[in-house]
Amino acid sequence: MKAIFKGAGKNASELVKVCKKFIQIAEEHNPGMKVRDHIRTLRQKIDTNKHANVNSKVPEVTNNKNSSLPNELDNKHKIELKDDTPDASITGKDANGNPTQSAPETPVDGDPISLCSGEELLSISEGKLLGLLPMEWSRFYRTSASEINKGLGYGWSHSLSHYLTFANDKIFWSDHENKTTEFPALTADTLVVTNKLAKAAISFGDRYESYIVTFSNGQGKYHFEREGSYARLVAISDKYHNTVTVHYTSEGYLSHIKNDTCRIYFSYNSLNLIEQVALQRYESDNQHNEFTWVSKSVLARYEYNSLLQLACASNGNNEKERYEYDDQNVIISRELSGGAIFHWQWEGEGKSARCIRQYSNFDNFDTQYEWNDETKTVKLTRSDGSQQVYQHDSNARLIYEKAADGAETFKEYDDKGQLVKITDPLGKVSQYFYDDSGNVSASVNPDRQVTNYVHFLGAVKRVSVGEGKSTRIWLNTINQHGEIVAAKDPSGCVTRYSFYDNGKIESVTYPDGVQTQYLWDSVGRLVEEKSSTGALSYYRYDDYGVNPVQVEDESGNVTLYQWDSLGRLLKCTYPDGRSREYQYNPYGKVTQLTDEAGRITAYEYAAPLHLLTHKTLPDGSVLKYRYNNIHLQVSEIENQKGEVYQLRYTATGLISEEIGFDNIKTTYAYDLSGHLIEKCEFGDRHDEEPFITQYVRDPMGRLLSKILPDGTEEQYSYDDFGQLTKIKSDQQLLVWEYDIAGRLTAEHQNWATIRHRYHEESGKLSGTRLPDGQWLEYHHRDGQLRGMTLDSQPLAAFDYNNSGRERERRQGNGLINRYQYDDMGRLSQHYLREGMGFDDNPQILWKQDYRYQADNELSQVIGNNARRYSYDDIGQLISSSNPDANQEDRHADRVETFSYDAAGNRISAENSAAGNRLAFFGDRHFEYDRFGNLIAERRGTAHKLLTTYEYDCRHRLIKHVSPNGRVSTYTYDAFNRRTSKTVEGKKTEFIWQGSKLIAECSDKDTVWRSYVYEPGSHRPLVLVEGNAKKNQKTRTFWYQNDYLGTPHSLTDSLGGLVYSCTYNAYGQVQTETQHQQEERGLRVETNLRFQGQYADEETGLFYNLNRYYDPALGGI
Q1: Which among 238, 264, 297 is the end of a domain?
Q2: Where are the residues of the annotated region Disordered (predicted)?
């Protein structure tokens, strides 16, 4: 209780504030609890054995004149759990006695050379012991250990080569990296000691003369038993007491490690060096019911030379890796199984050697290292002449880095080795503060945003960002094992977790009430996953595999998998019997893919590297890739026509220049932090003045200003949490609002506003207020959307199968959509019928059945608008036929055929799309500007029919002039969303919700259309005509969509057909019918086409957000 009042003043107002803080903390202690009675809350007992006391929002920060924290953090009270564990921080040391950090925390270069010591630090993982505590078998080479042999030859250690030695009232721990860490001797008064510099701790075990070591990057608790001045590793356990025991031969050599079901067994050669590592299981021989250890797979085999040096290692697939050394056991070459060879040149000898050159048998890999012992720096010089500099302090921590572009980064640490400050190349500072246990308690970003953390049992208990009423707080309830059992977000929504006694996750219950349950086998493999929504998956494995060989879903559909000994997928057989197969090279890269139709795609790589150079498609066409830079990033892509796409990079590996297949050139410039600050667009005339776009950024790298080539400027604003709140330009104003959980609550587009609200407990979107004031509401049950209403008017009710796929939709006009799926989860049937309210015998109004070919492409549509489709060997549509077409109907083409060039451009003649620019199609001839924008189309006799196009500096279409002189103009916002179009003086404005067109209006709002979509898609659901805000009478029409989500008809509030249309294969409307125009004078316009497309009658094009689509061409 004293801690609660620490720092409180003597006056009453301060005392009241502290009491309120106490109430807040008590309420936060349990995310699911709401404090309604302050007295009851104050009396509530907090079980500190199960849950952590929650710290206040602001951690204690040293209050001195040099504090660089924001002022609001100074002079704050603290509430903390004090950690009085003794600490004896001494950096770990290598065999030379030099300080060293663990390999994962040491900056390395190439194949990997330590940029601190100059030695090789090579870690290779070769397999795992299955179990509730999976144990990795790995080996590790370091140059400074070249005089040490731990059973794998000189210089090598392995993941089990831990031991303790005792001398001079000290304990020395030698680990799997041949690194030694020092601790003071334990006593009856000092049962536990930490070494924060080494990120490790030691304590007494539960037996006489036993010890436990824990460390970062470890796999749990490492148990040692002492005999005299030496203690060997005997077990590794986790916090749930899952244990792997370590066993030795009578001579003291490592024999095996095991858990309850399997073990890793080590075989030795005559020189007592490990020659084989095998995974074994304890099982019956099936004849005499006698149990014995049976080898299931070989993880690794090792060969040695006469100097007891590891010369060759083979993995489970018998792929070999070879090594060469000098006579003092210093590695001088490594040959990978794929053929790449790394070579090292050294200065010094034996364990004191350090690398001065690293090179390989492939191009662009040759680095020289220049060491300076006085400044503790190393300078790297690459094959292209670029240089980098690294500097470490006396404790082997990186304190300075100079990149190849001159960018400098500085790091500072406290006396416990904890990173406290980073100064980036632009001088921006990030700071970190720690609690007594070494956990981060506060971080300060370059924009001075403060994030506070409270930890308990190693887990994050509380995170808070911001100050005052706008503070966002995440709260976790922690169990006695340090696991999060409840997580509460800033809005109050809670996700709950339960665990089995062995630590495996048992269930997750989401805020909407949906629960997923998990079952595991005895070796920790998932065998069943079940959702309260009905989804269910069963997993089956072979004796020793970590990957499933069979997965069965809730409908009994079974998918089979075959894996090689390295866990690479060889074959997948689907429920319908089709299969897909893979082949690999020694680098694990796919060399051949055989798809479900038996077609082969082949991949070739740049020997001896793993970089893709040729991709041969099933039709024999080839894509080629080249890599002409030290970063080994793709520099050229050659398409099937021999056209080349070129890429260039900065010294740090960022793209600096690209020249497309059409010769369009763009260059990029970056600040020293790697953020884009300038883009220059030259088009295909590289000597002309470029279009230049400039970017101004804040300390976090967020865009503040974009200055466009025409001089106009867009300004960007953010809230305290870095969320975009405003974009302002001369033409547009976009504004966003968010709630305490960071969820979007309002979108303002100039004069139009859209608002959102969320369910209090589930956090799901519950309503959207459309720009005309109508509330679109979402109704969820069991985590699924079950209904949608518009101002209480039913729009749709949804029902799902156990797989979560929609099986029925009841529309607000009484019509019913039904959906069926095949064993592959593909839509197999969709029909629209009348509801029971129409008559006693409801009729099917529209129906389609779907058939697919072996590669999953749609091959046939049966029923309404029947179609047959055929494809070439690479999946391009080459024909579409209508078996029901009336050949006398000139509007109904019985067969459409399509041709493509080698690069996939749809063409009407060969060589008509150089650089992916279509020069002509039929009698249509096209002209482009230097940026590849279509500026003119000529057609007709002598090409007299001219259509022209104009663009702004962002290459957006702003003007269209048709052959008859009709002029259309267009405007856009910062996200390239079209905000208006004006055709012969008539203006239509567009309002967006994200990337979805949600409303359009024209004739001074007398014509207003609102669009409602299926959630999470661009599939239209409802069209509403009329502006409710202006008391206009509204009419609702329901979209009926095909399998692509393209509308084929509209129905009215009584279920009557109002509009219908048919399309060709590329979305061009072939027929349109207004069904109630003659009888009722009702005409309904709908411009929605393929998902996300809006048809412009004046151009014949479909606006597609960031581009325009020509359905006659199948592109633009």
Answers
A1: 297
A2: 46-112
Quick check: is 688 in a domain? no
Question: How many CB atoms neighbour CB 1035 within 10 A?
Answer: 14
| Residue 1116: inside a domain | no
Q: How buried is residue 986: exposed, middle or buried, by Cβ count under 10 Å (0-12/13-18/19+)?
A: exposed
What are the structure tokens assigned to 801, written together? 């199968």
Is residue 847 within 8 A of residue 832, CB to CB? The reply is yes
Asked if residue 264 lies in contact with residue 245, where contact means CB atoms within 8 angstroms, the answer is: no
More confident position, 902 or 517: 517
Taking a C-beta distance cutoff of 8 angstroms, is the pair 580, 596 a contact?
A: yes
How many domains, in total, are found in the chain? 2
Cβ atoms of 736 and 726 closer than 8 Å: yes
For CA atoms 429, 433, 439, 443, the dihedral sign is: negative
Residue 1102 has pLDDT above 70, yes or no: yes
Neighbouring-strand partners of residue 961: 948, 967
557, 550 contact by CB (below 8 A): no
* CA atoms of 1107 and 1116, how far apart (whole Å): 8
Specify if 484 maps to a domain: no
Q: Provide the token pair at 718.
A: 């953010």
Asked if residues 1083 and 1074 have their Cβ atoms less than 8 Å apart, the reply is yes
The whole model's pTM is what? Answer: 0.88
Amino acid at 553: D
Domain boundary among 297, 327, 342: 297
Residue 1084 lies in a domain: yes
Q: Contact 1088/1065 with Cβ under 8 angstroms? A: no
- Strand-pairing partners, residue 1014, are none
Looking up tokens 């300076």 gives 372
Domain that holds residue 822: 724-897+966-1109
For residue 245, which phi and psi values (nearest 5 degrees)? -95, 150
Dump pLDDT digits (tens) for 1015-1031. 889 999 999 998 878 78
